[in-house]
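Expect chain and fold; thus:
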Amino acid sequence: MMEAVIKRKAGRVAAGKHRTRPVEVHMRTVPILTEGQRERAREAVAGAAIVGCVVLTGLVEGSTWPM
């Protein structure tokens, strides 16, 4: 089981007519991915970006050179 993480965020709430006051909101979150899964996802995105660049380069070169 993964441990919950407490995140803090500053905000403002109503404190009367036409007035606000600062508050700090605390949110309990649970990470969806483990560190290993996060690393594999990064590698997959990087691989897809490289393949996309190669394909895009091939399309550009194929469309500009005469047959």
Observations:
- The mean pLDDT is 88.
- The first strand starts at residue 5 and ends at 16.
- Helices lie at 35-64.
